[in-house]
Design brief:
With 321 residues, the chain is an alpha+beta fold. It has eleven helices and ten strands.
Length: 321
């Protein structure tokens, strides 16, 4: 009766991380998989979202109040009427910002990061910012520093936001959904403050400990603290880096140039953004590769593991008496 729990304690000490790269396994439910478009390949989804008029407005769609007050309207995908979006017209000076957000979304999708589709598209000849409607709670109500599944998803998300120089990440920039197994799933939203155009490093890794230094002091790279990275090794962070490192500069440039199709400077902008992103991927990966083994991997000594086993044994023994 006592041996099995002790084996479980030992197993927890050596357990591998959940494979967050297998997002369809994480989502589990067909409804969630279709909602977040992970039933598509990258190429198929990209080709769908750069088409004009794949959305059509439907006045019968009930949209959230906050969206109504910001001039959004409900829309459906013509070929998939159950896929609901909200869209609003954008001014010429807003086009570039929406294009940058769409680039962030597709980099997220490529790297198996769950985020809400946000795109620039034409509907009946007019440019719109469109976002897929996802009904969910905000992360701010969850104990994301203590719940392992939430904490780990946010730890991996740091990599994406650092690469995008997105310094406005608070709990309200994430949604929380549950699947039928009661797994908690984080969905990133709101990429409007990402900066893909700045050449200089706005976010630098600290040299005396694991962490980061930012130019913008009033905002946050992540809802977590750098201390939350303790006891996570590069095997864990490579869940995300393995995808980023597959991207060549030419692949990033092609993605950017296609998304920037409404911009007269699309070629020069695509060159600039792709260079920045590739340089940042290399920098962030090199920093994690050096700092994580040095500062984060604080493995327990053997005597501490046996001390934990002793405490657990006594607890189980006393409960059985």
């Amino acid at each position: 009766m006592i041996i099995n729990p002790i084996k479980n304690i030992l197993r927890e000490k050596t357990m591998k991380y959940y494979d967050y790269s297998d997002i369809n396994k994480l989502l589990h439910d067909k409804q969630l998989i279709e909602l977040l478009c992970t039933n598509y390949s990258f190429d198929d989804l990209f080709n769908l979202f750069i088409k004009d008029d794949f959305l059509e407005f439907d006045s019968g769609i009930k949209i959230p109040f906050f969206a109504e007050t910001r001039d959004y309207r409900g829309a459906r995908e013509k070929d998939k009427p159950d896929s609901i979006w909200i869209a609003k017209p954008i001014k010429e000076e807003e086009v570039l910002n929406v294009e940058m957000a769409m680039i962030c979304f597709f980099l997220d999708f490529y790297t198996h990061t769950l985020s809400a589709p946000q795109i620039i598209t034409k509907i009946d000849g007019t440019l719109y910012k469109a976002t897929k409607l996802i009904k969910a709670a905000q992360l701010s109500g969850a104990n994301y520093t203590e719940i392992k599944q939430l904490r780990e998803q946010l730890l991996l998300d740091i990599i994406n936001r650092w690469i995008y120089f997105d310094e406005d990440r608070n709990p309200n920039n994430y949604l929380l959904k549950y699947n039928s197994k009661n797994d908690q799933i984080i969905i990133a939203i709101d990429f409007g403050n990402a900066d893909l155009l700045t050449k200089e490093l706005k976010i630098k890794g600290l040299q005396d400990k694991f962490g980061w230094e930012r130019i913008e002091k009033t905002r946050y790279l992540t809802p977590l603290k750098s201390e939350n990275c303790i006891n996570y090794d590069m095997e864990f962070f490579n869940i995300r880096f393995n995808f980023f490192n597959k991207l060549s500069k030419e692949e990033i440039k092609e993605i950017c140039e296609t998304i920037l199709r409404f911009n007269p400077d699309k070629k020069s902008l695509a060159e600039r953004v792709s260079t920045n992103i590739k340089n940042r991927i290399d920098y962030v990966y090199d920093y994690f590769s050096e700092a994580v083994p040095k500062y984060c991997c604080q493995k327990k000594k053997t005597r501490d593991i046996y001390k934990d086993m002793g405490k657990a044994f006594n607890k189980i023994y006393n409960e059985d008496r």
